[in-house]
Amino acid sequence: MVSRLVQYHIQRLNDKDPAVRLRSINELRLLGDPAALPALERVFRTDDDPEVRKAAQRAGREIYDKSIAARGDRKSE
C-alpha cells in the first residue's frame, strides 16, 4: 500500500511548474519508498525539463539501491 504522502508527491510530478516537480522528486527521494519508482521512471523518460529528468534519475537510483541493500540485509538475518 502506498502512503498518502508518497501518493501526494507522485501526483505533483505532473505539475506544470518544474520547481514543484523538483521539490516532489526530492521529497520522494527522502521518503525512499520503492512504490515511487515507476513514477520517477516515467518522469525520467518523458519530462521536458532536463534538470527534472536528471533529478528523477538520481532519486530513482538512490531509492532502488537502498531497497536492494535492505533486501540483502534481511536475507542475512
Write the layout of secondary structure elements.
Layout: H1 4-12, H2 18-31, H3 37-46, H4 50-75
Care to describe what's here?
This protein is 77% helix and 0% strand. It contains four helices and no strands. Helix 1 runs antiparallel to helix 2, helix 2 packs parallel to helix 4 (50-75) and helix 3 packs antiparallel against helix 4. It starts with a helix and ends with a helix.
Quick structural overview:
With 77 residues, this protein is mainly alpha-helical. Helices cover 77% and strands 0% of the residues.
Low-pLDDT stretches: none
The share of residues in extended strands comes to under 5%
| Helical run tally | 4
**Backbone CA Rg:** 13 Å
Descriptive labels:
77 residues; mainly alpha; Leucine-rich Repeat Variant; ARM-type_fold; ARM-like; HEAT repeat domain-containing protein
